[in-house]
């Protein structure tokens, strides 16, 4: 049976905040483990051994005094009760059972047994099941069994719980402080990520991102602000330049059209008029492609209404088109640019196909608009070339039909301005599918 490969990154939190907290929590947990190990391996054993050694020494002393002065046994028991906290009961004639105690493997039991074996050197039996309240030690004597009831505070140290509470409590306090600190440090990064994502989707911000947080985050924010400003300035300069070019080119074309209109209706003049008109269309297409709709602002747009209106307009123009939008879709787009993107794709399909199908809907974390047709389609090895400006696929498309080879280029440019992408695929209707995917 094949086993998947183990990758540590699959078990790490995906967010920066989660990974930062993991970096903080891991040393705390490791510190607690090491501290606990050292405490139980050193402190617990040492403290417990000292406690049980003291108890064993007291019991040994009591036994020696009993043999030295048997007549003072009662006074000895009272003194042990008052000064050592030991309750002593002599049971004449009793014999210890041979069965070991139930908790013979306990730490307190084993250490106390070892201490009693070294000090008392007589048969004994220990009952430490309730060691927090008391520990019962039965010692076999010649005249019977001496029961020694040891209070729990003499064999059990409360420092264990105090240590654990302090360790856990301080860890929680440190974790809370670190969480607040990391949240304040991560917030500027999240704000910067949101601004970058919005800028990549063509959604212009009202103001620059405020530099906050650590030095590196502030530097990254300042670099992003400078970059976005340079890009916006270049777009404005390009748009202004193209507006001037458009004016300069249209002025002589207008004069040429007027002069041709005054020359009469000769066949050669008519042919010149067609050339001038074709040139005007080509210049308009080139300028539209180069401009890229950079000056239009993104607006919260009802795509359901926009796509439906486009389909209705094409129906009125005589196209065989079926439009369907799944649910109600509202998102941020540049309305005129996005409408031009869909118009270009529909015009491209209408030029070579008899029927067109337009579909729009949500697909996971994105919006998809598909334009299918039943035309000849484009072979897979030529689809990327179809996006190149001014390229016409003569082998797959009729060279006598209109177009300057800019429709798909403009459509892809507009999709990318919105942070999305345009794909060409095989249509289930036998022709070409153009699929626009926009992130939400």
TrEMBL record:
Pfam family of the protein (one): HAMP
Keywords in alphabetical order: ATP-binding, Cell inner membrane, Cell membrane, Kinase, Membrane, Nucleotide-binding, Phosphoprotein, Transferase, Transmembrane, Transmembrane helix, Two-component regulatory system
Domain of life, per lineage: Bacteria
Substrates-to-products reaction catalysed: ATP + protein L-histidine = ADP + protein N-phospho-L-histidine
Compartment annotation: Cell inner membrane
Membrane-spanning parts: 20-40, 161-182
Domain HAMP: 183-236
Name listed for the protein in its UniProt record: histidine kinase
Native organism: Hwanghaeella grinnelliae
């Amino acid at each position: 049976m094949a086993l998947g490969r183990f990758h540590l990154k699959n078990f790490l939190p995906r967010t920066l905040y989660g990974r930062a907290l993991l970096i903080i929590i891991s040393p705390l947990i490791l510190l607690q483990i090491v501290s606990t190990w050292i405490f139980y391996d050193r402190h617990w054993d040492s403290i417990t051994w000292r406690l049980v050694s003291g108890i064993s020494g007291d019991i040994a002393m009591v036994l020696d005094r009993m043999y030295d002065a048997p007549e003072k046994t009662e006074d000895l028991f009272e003194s042990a009760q008052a000064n050592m906290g030991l309750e002593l009961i002599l049971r004449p004639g009793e014999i210890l059972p041979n069965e070991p105690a139930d908790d013979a493997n306990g730490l307190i039991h084993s250490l106390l047994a070892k201490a009693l074996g070294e000090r008392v050197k007589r048969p004994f039996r220990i009952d430490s099941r309730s060691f927090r309240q008391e520990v019962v030690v039965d010692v076999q004597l010649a005249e019977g069994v001496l029961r020694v009831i040891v209070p729990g505070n003499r064999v059990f140290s409360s420092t264990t719980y105090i240590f654990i509470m302090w360790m856990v409590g301080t860890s929680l306090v440190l974790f809370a402080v670190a969480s607040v600190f990391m949240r304040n440090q991560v917030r500027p990064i999240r704000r910067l990520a949101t601004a970058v994502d919005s800028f990549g989707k063509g959604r212009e911000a009202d103001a620059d991102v405020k530099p906050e947080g650590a030095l590196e985050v502030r530097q990254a924010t300042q670099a992003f602000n400078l970059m976005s400003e340079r890009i916006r300035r270049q777009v404005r300069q390009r748009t202004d330049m193209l507006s001037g070019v458009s004016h300069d080119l249209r002025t002589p074309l207008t004069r040429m059209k007027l002069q041709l209109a005054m020359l009469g209706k000769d066949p050669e003049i008519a042919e010149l008029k067609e050339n001038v008109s074709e040139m005007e269309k080509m210049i308009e297409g080139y300028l539209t492609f180069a401009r890229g709709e950079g000056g239009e602002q993104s607006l919260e747009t009802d795509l359901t209404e926009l796509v439906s209106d486009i389909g209705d307009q094409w129906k009125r123009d005589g196209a065989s088109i079926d439009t369907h939008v799944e649910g109600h879709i509202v998102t941020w787009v540049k309305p005129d640019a996005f409408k031009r993107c869909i118009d270009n794709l529909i015009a491209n399909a209408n030029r070579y196909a008899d029927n067109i199908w337009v579909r729009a809907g949500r697909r996971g974390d994105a919006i998809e608009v598909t334009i299918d047709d039943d035309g000849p389609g484009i072979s897979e090895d030529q689809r990327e070339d179809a996006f190149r400006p001014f390229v016409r696929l003569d082998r797959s498309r009729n060279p006598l039909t209109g177009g300057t080879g800019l429709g798909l280029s403009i459509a892809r440019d507009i999709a990318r301005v919105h942070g999305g992408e345009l794909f060409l695929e095989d249509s289930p209707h036998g022709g070409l599918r153009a699929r626009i995917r926009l992130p939400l």
